[in-house]
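Lab notes, practical 5.
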Amino acid sequence: MTKFDEATQAIRVDETTYDVCLDGGYSIGGPLNGGYLMAVLLRAVVDASPHEHPVSTGAQFLRAPVPGPAQVRLEQLKAGRTAAMTRATLVQDGVSFIEALVTTATLGDAAPDWTGEPAAVLPPVEECVKLPDPKPESNMTLSAQMDMRFDPPTIGWLQGRPTGRPEARAHFRMAEPQDPDPYVLALAVDALPPVVFSAGARGWAPTVELTWHLRALPAPGWLTLVGSGRLISDGWFDEDVEVWDSAGRLVAQSRQLARVGRG
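Output from the prediction step:
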């Protein structure tokens, strides 16, 4: 069991309740990363489901939980031969923090009938760059859990040279050696810096709603993350992320709605 597996572990209490312990190692300056929190929810949902994989997840982030004990409460909405649908709620101290609708199914390993091309092609890993290590007082502990190598133009905002377009691109793997799985993908779809940084915005950009789809089981090796946005308006922005595996297959897609950072 890796550190990430332990940090997302869900322990069954009864048919509808799982105990979890939210790990402060996945913090982004205080709040816990939304992808990490989805992975915690999905551990419970899949354990209780007759199917093996979370193929569609839509999560509403009501408020930011803190590290420590919490519960995942489940309500099964449908259990069919090919898919099951579950409502999952992350609860801490009796308060709901995340509401999610999750569809589970069992994916095979057949080649796709058809696939498009990535929205953008990244340079090789060795030509991409890491972000500087955050200062300890920043409480940006998430970066230590991941190994990310960024397409240089998309992090020009670090030197005050944003591209002016909402975009982010990087190669991704866990810092601790681990083959990617659906739970790693849940983290990956929310691992990039907010795409509005490249458009010139700064500050914490809280996610309000995030939907992601598991399209295939990923091959071992690096993942490629391609993030983009279509509209920044009235304090809101959208962010789309494609995740491609080392075999060149699209394995996950996401879209989120978030608030533009303040300060």
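Observations recorded by the TA: The helical segments are 3-7, 34-48, 182-188. The chain has a mean pLDDT of 96.
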